[in-house]
């Protein structure tokens, strides 16, 4: 809507989620994360319709546009499969030198990173924490708390998602609850 060339905003941050006409929402159920978790027996006993995370995204340009930016807010619910914390699928970028920012909004998490040599490291996420994810580094987030974890992301519109590499090779280390302590194994 326009009044004298002053436009009203069409996308808002509300309750840690993006809202507005152009916001796209997606949901990942436990059943969508079949090969993500290590403990297959624990996985089989759980309700596959359980919502693990939801992403609301603002994609103001077409996918693959060079020079554009996308933004998303992810809400990752608390829980574990066996001793492994609920986490996002994780991905490299298809255009693999593209970087990304993540930042924590609510809750407690761990950002797990892995380079192309399969070296893994991690960063604590908390409200206000800012994380620069360089190109050629795979990234996934685990919720290590008892409440929902909300984080936001900003990435280039020509980054794309390479899920296939993680689906076939996984991350070289897993974040497990070892006697109450989140530990990279
Ligand atoms: C962030 C961004 C998105 C990503 C989402 C969920 O919001 O990195 O690009 O889709 O997290 O992560 P994943 O795609 O790995 O499931
Ligand atoms: Zn990414």
TrEMBL record:
It comes from the Bacteria. GO terms for biological process: gluconeogenesis; glycolytic process. GO terms for cellular component: cytoplasm. The keyword rRNA-binding does not apply. Pfam families: GPI (PF06560). It catalyses: alpha-D-glucose 6-phosphate = beta-D-fructose 6-phosphate. Keywords: Gluconeogenesis, Glycolysis, Isomerase. Its EC number is 5.3.1.9. InterPro entries: G6P_isomerase_prok, RmlC-like_jellyroll, RmlC_Cupin_sf. Pathway: Carbohydrate degradation; glycolysis; D-glyceraldehyde 3-phosphate and glycerone phosphate from D-glucose: step 2/4. Residues 31-175 form the Glucose-6-phosphate isomerase prokaryote domain. Gene3D superfamilies: Jelly Rolls (2.60.120.10). GO terms for molecular function: glucose-6-phosphate isomerase activity. The keyword Isomerase applies. Belongs to the archaeal-type GPI family. This is glucose-6-phosphate isomerase. The lineage of its organism: Bacteria, Pseudomonadati, Bacteroidota, Bacteroidia, Bacteroidales.
